[in-house]
Specification:
The chain is mainly alpha-helical. 59% of the residues lie in helices and 11% in strands. A two-stranded antiparallel sheet has the order 1-2. A hairpin with a 2-residue loop joins strand 1 (44-49) and strand 2 (52-57).
């Protein structure tokens, strides 16, 4: 998903393979399978472009992250416990970001 978001426009599997190759060797079919799985899960949409498909993100990186957190919470019978572990592992910068997000959500001003 990060590579799709970085491009900021619809991409082909071949373009994503090209982006990934400098980081690690990856097979075209592996990337194609992952992108199709993401499409079936509702993260990507695809459109025919000649003999290939062009994929684009249906959600922003922020929305994607929020959905992953929601999935983690839904997988547990102790949501408070999950959140306590999560908050306990935050760095100072991450904790500041959580506080800023909470303030934006509630309309509170920093004191």
């Amino acid at each position: 998903m990060r590579k799709v978001w970085d491009r900021g426009q619809p991409v082909t599997v071949r373009e994503i393979v090209g982006d990934l190759q400098p980081e690690r060797p990856v097979a075209y079919t592996t990337v194609m399978t992952v992108m199709d799985n993401l499409r079936r899960k509702g993260w990507l949409r695809r459109q025919q472009a000649g003999r290939a498909y062009r994929y684009e993100a249906l959600v922003s990186a922020d929305e994607y992250g929020a959905r992953l957190i929601r999935q983690a919470l839904a997988a547990s019978s102790d949501r408070a416990g999950v959140l306590l572990h999560f908050i306990g592992e935050l760095s100072a910068d991450e904790a500041t970001a959580v506080e800023a997000a909470y303030r934006r959500l509630t309309g509170e001003n920093a004191s």
